[in-house]
């Protein structure tokens, strides 16, 4: 039987085995999918992948903190992995190891297919300048927003991140980086995405209510945390459409499944099953 796995540390919380097992059952694919905890430390991720490959592994998903290690380990990087400096899916073909990063495309697919948001011509605010934000920028730009602002607690980090994408050819009239203080004067945004890790520690971001449009969408990339402080802020600002990252999680899994198996599973039932009410 073809073997797949998700590798991370810790890994006990991972929903990936349940998601991929559901996809396999729905598409009639015969495969196994397990969760593997790799030890932390230099070379440990590569050693864990090597062992899995030697036991017949065909591909892996990669989660925190190993996404940059997955990029370094691979022999062939897709543009998504190269731009993000991180990979969340590997495929083994003989001696070759191909790397992809489906987080950003999973996000955009969730926004457009599941949440019904037309990104073209809209104003988008991306909060944070870490790995989650970096992986989202290119797929968001491809959806042709009128504006994509990347704002961060440390403005210099957002500015440096944006400069990297401008150097790759992004349009300076669309993509802008800076600090949260810019929100005092800025326009309202159709879509506000939280890609900071503040929700994991239940911290509140300094966002004026006028950042949000009531008929816009507020999206927190974390999942399974219910109504995060960010989503509560958006709700208090009158935003009616709130979403967490469960759809992004399932959509990136579907992209990986299709890449490995050549069959694209439907995602609606799995998203519904994993969704927690945002209350
Ligand atoms: P990830 O890979 O999840 O993006 P990361 O690379 O550690 O994680 O980045 C975390 C992001 O969350 C950063 O943008 C960080 O802001 P700084 O660059 O200023 O540190 C942001 N972040 C974390 N906690 C935050 C908080 N309490 N308020 C605002 N931003 C926060």
TrEMBL record:
Keywords of this entry:
Amino-acid biosynthesis, Aromatic amino acid biosynthesis, NADP, Oxidoreductase
Give a GO cellular-component term.
cytosol
Q: Which InterPro entries match?
A: Aminoacid_DH-like_N_sf, NAD(P)-bd_dom_sf, SDH_C, Shikimate_DH, Shikimate_DH-bd_N, Shikimate_DH_fam, Shikm_DH/Glu-tRNA_Rdtase
- Biological processes per GO annotation: amino acid biosynthetic process; aromatic amino acid family biosynthetic process; chorismate biosynthetic process; shikimate metabolic process
Every copy of the Quinate/shikimate 5-dehydrogenase/glutamyl-tRNA reductase domain together lies at 118-198
Question: What residues does the SDH C-terminal domain cover?
Answer: 245-267
| Regions crossing the membrane | none
- Where does the chain bind NADP(+)? 79, 128-132, 221, 245
Please report the stretch or stretches of sequence annotated as the Shikimate dehydrogenase substrate binding N-terminal domain. 6-89
Fetch the CDD domains from UniProt.
NAD_bind_Shikimate_DH (cd01065)
Instruction: Please indicate which superkingdom the organism of origin belongs to.
Output: Bacteria
Residues bound to shikimate: 14-16, 63, 88, 103, 223, 252
- EC no.? 1.1.1.25
Biochemical pathway: Metabolic intermediate biosynthesis; chorismate biosynthesis; chorismate from D-erythrose 4-phosphate and phosphoenolpyruvate: step 4/7
Q: Which SUPFAM superfamilies match?
A: Aminoacid dehydrogenase-like, N-terminal domain, NAD(P)-binding Rossmann-fold domains
What's its catalytic activity? shikimate + NADP(+) = 3-dehydroshikimate + NADPH + H(+)
Keyword set includes tRNA processing: no
- Key word NADP present in the record? yes
Q: How does it assemble?
A: Homodimer.
Function, as annotated, reads: Involved in the biosynthesis of the chorismate, which leads to the biosynthesis of aromatic amino acids. Catalyzes the reversible NADPH linked reduction of 3-dehydroshikimate (DHSA) to yield shikimate (SA).
* Similarity comment text for this entry: Belongs to the shikimate dehydrogenase family.
Q: Which HAMAP family does the protein's record reference? A: Shikimate_DH_AroE
Descriptive protein name: Shikimate dehydrogenase (NADP(+))
Taxonomic source organism: Serpentinimonas raichei
